[in-house]
Design a protein that fits this description.
Blueprint lengths: L22 H23 L6 H18 L5 E3 L1 H27 L8 E5 L7 H11 L4 E7 L2 E6 L6 H15 E3 L1
Antiparallel strand pairs: 1-5, 2-4, 3-4
Helix pairs in contact: 1-2, 3-5
Length: about 180
Amino acid sequence: MSDPAMSGPVASGPAASGSGGAPNASMFHALARAAGFLILWLVLAGYEPADLPIAVAAALAATWTSLRLLPPDSSRVSPVALVRLTLRFLWQSVVAGGDVARRALDPRLPLRPGLMVYPVRFPPGRWRNTFAALTSLLPGTVPAGDQNGQLVYHCLDVDQPVASQLAAEESALAQAIRHA
């Protein structure tokens, strides 16, 4: 458990912004989010000069809300590892989707559904939720709950190496994030 992304609660808020809560770091996060929300508005609604005051107000409201609900923290995403994670996810989705289709269409129905408990290493919070969401998109397994701090998965076939597949996904996500 030497990976800092997996070693305890993820700190958030101004003190965790990587600069001791410096106003410049907080302002950068707020401006980056505001710009992102404004760009999203313009992409979705189009640019009309008369609508710009409403667009700015909506972007500011979205920024305020996002900073309240998801304060900046010291986590940083590695672009290279994120691309690797995305490509891995796409490949795994195709392979697993084919496997699920084969099993579902086989007249013998080679399925052994059941539940398994996975001892996820991410602490409760943002990255654990991200891991659960990521693995819920992979065919054949879906997070079904939490039991004593571990994730419970419903599996289409409990004879498959589900735990090792989840561990590989967890490792790939841990490599994609890192703490500054």
